[in-house]
Amino acid sequence: MSAAATEVFLGRQPILDRQQQVIAYELLYRDGRSDSAEVGNDAQATAGVIQRLFHDFGIHTVLGRCAGFINVDAEMLMSRRIESLPRRRVVLELLETVCIDERIVRRCRELKAQGFRLALDDFSAYHERYEPLLEIADIVKIDVLQLDRAALAGLVRRLRLYPARLLAEKVESREAARRCLRLGFDLFQGFFFGRPALLAS
Q1: What does 5-68 look like in DSSP terms, one character per residue?
Q2: CATH placement of domain 22-200
Q3: CA distance 18 to 21
Q4: Among 6, 2, 11, CA closest to 199
Q5: For residue range 52-76, what is the model confidence (pLDDT) as tens digits?
């Protein structure tokens, strides 16, 4: 078997704090040397990330001392496999495709009780249905590209009523980074700070 046939890949994008220190990486499924991957099944993509993180590369090689954000859909969230992850090293990032209902909220509370951290992905508008999760989420990722200045400022004010730290994602320019700093975001992610890097093994 050729070396190319046995290569495995993983993407990671840095997440920084207000001092521009890398404190975490979002881990991304990659099936080759391209900058992105066609994901037909979110649960399978997450399983691939987990396999590569813990078995192919090793958690210390990928994360060092940082945390790893792992995208989870409803299927993976409900899976018992998720409970085998090291809860101090990973943040479970609920994809925006997850339909929020009592079953999902109950499972999130169960995982929080076990010590897992939760992040809400691609947040761009407040709705009452999110309240049960906002009360327990550790991090809310706000898609700054989806909102104009007034809407972004209003959403930040609304979410400050909850305990979660706010992460500005898809920050692509110096101007956007400065605006998010002024608004009081705690964490930052986007092409301005670093594009996803491809790891190959």
Answers
A1: HH--EEEEEEEEETT--EEEEEEEE-SSSSS----S-HHHHHHHHHHIIIIII-HHHHHTTSEE
A2: 3.20.20.450
A3: 7
A4: 11
A5: 877 778 888 899 999 999 999 999 9
